[in-house]
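Input record (Table S2, row 271):
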Amino acid sequence: MRIVLLGAPGSGKGTQAQRLAERAGIPQISTGDLLRAAVARGTGLGLAAKAAMEGGRLVEDSLVLGMIRERLGESDARSGFILDGFPRNLAQAHALERLLAELKQPLDAVVQLEVDPAELVRRISGRRSCADCGRVFNLLTSPPPTGAAAVCPKTGAPHRLVQRPDDNEATVAERLRVYDEKTRPLIDFYRSRGLLRVIDAQGDLDEVTRRLVRALAPSAGAARARRPRAATAAARRKVADGRTRKRSAKSARAGTRSKKTPRRQAPRAKK
Ligand code: AMP
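Output record (adenosine monophosphate complex):
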């Protein structure tokens, strides 16, 4: 399964991608996480990305594309992946399409997570993540478990909850603006490619995961794909019927079958 999760900041892409990744046994690839790790390590990429991230702007395409090309080339991505936070604009979407065509691994689906703007801001303000394992929690909607379950799988100690530096009011406003301007057009882009599925991402976390899983079920895509195919088949039948009718009239007149339409082709055209 190769999918993209689309949605505004705070729509729950990270949380749902984590859940889906665990369930499907494929990696969640979050460009935000990769960039934050580069910033924390102080690499060249991190240094180049830091200012844009702190201002809530998009990091330069060439940096993000280099990073994603490298990540998708790793062996664990061969069995599938969930892209979270990438692509973020049309140039990235086109570049991803080219890259996946090169790798012969086209996308299976793109899911848009729909959340009201007021709810987005509320969710972002409650968001915390573990500084060690990166797991995302929300003090309002999905607080970290308590007791024995509250252990970080990386350290074996309780999760160390931190708030992202760009989850402050001013930066959030800019991130939402950037989403509307640069990322929202991807909805139409993927709709035009027949890949888009939209889910209501509000309400109970488990229920949203169920909606996501349902949206990704082969039958959801098949139903979508069947409709146009059925229409095409009907159109084909109409043409074939027309041809048969014409041919019958001609044959009746000539008393023969046309050389251009050998007998064995007739049943195939009727399928
Ligand atoms: P996220 O964790 O997805 O909300 O991303 C945090 C920040 O990282 C964004 O506000 C951007 O500054 C940067 N970022 C993440 N993904 C991308 C991307 N695909 N293109 C450009 N910048 C990105």
